[in-house]
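Q: Give me a backbone?
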Amino acid sequence: MRWVAVGSDGELEDIRKRRMLELRKRLAEGEQSSEQQEKELNAQKEAALRQILTYEARQRLSRLRLVKKDFVEQIELQLIQIAQSGRVKLPIDDKQLKQILIQLQPSRKEITFRRV
C-alpha cells in the first residue's frame, strides 16, 4: 500500500474549492438545459392550443389559469389529446370550451347550514 501525503491544509482547501466550483458549474448547466426543455415544451403546447382553440376560448383559459393553474394545465393537455384523436371539430369555440369545462370540472359538494 502506498500513501500519498498532502502538502498542507491550504492545498487541500484549494482542491475542495476547485471541486465545489466544478460541481456548481455542472449543476448550473443541468438547470439551464432543463429550463430550455421546459420552455420548448411550453412553446409547442401554446402553438397547439392556438390551432385548437379560438381566440375567445384561449382568453377564457388564460383567465381561469389565474385562479386554477393546475386545473387549466390538465385541461390543456386533455384538449390537445382530444384534438389529436379527432374526437372534436376544430377549432373549439368558447361555447364548446364552456361545455368541456363543465364536464371535466370536479363535482362540488353543496354545504347547507341549518340554524338551530
Remarks:
- The chain has a mean pLDDT of 84.
- The CA atoms of residues 92 and 110 lie 31 Å apart.
